[in-house]
Amino acid sequence: MRILIRAFSALALALAIGGSALAQEYVKGEVVKVDAKQKKLTIKHEPLTNLDMPAMTMVFVVAEDGMIEKVKAGQAIEFAADRVNGRITVTDIK
After folding, report:
1. What is this structure's pTM?
2. What CATH code is carried by the domain that includes residue 41?
3. Which H helix or E strand runs over 1?
4. To the nearest whole number, what is the mean pLDDT of the chain?
């Protein structure tokens, strides 16, 4: 029984460390448009390799409402994006 508990503890620790070690990929972009009402940003960005997307201009939803207040049209940003509930979403802005 102790061996089983230790094995599960080691597995839980490995998963916790592995999950936090996965760094978000930040890319450079320029905010083209801010739509606060719809909680969306239009961003001209570099390739998003984690999403297998080339450089382009596209509309993103934001993960948190406060992100909209941090940016304005024409601003250069570094941001992370990922699929969240099937939608390509800005998950963080530097």
Report:
1. 0.75
2. 2.40.50.320
3. none
4. 85
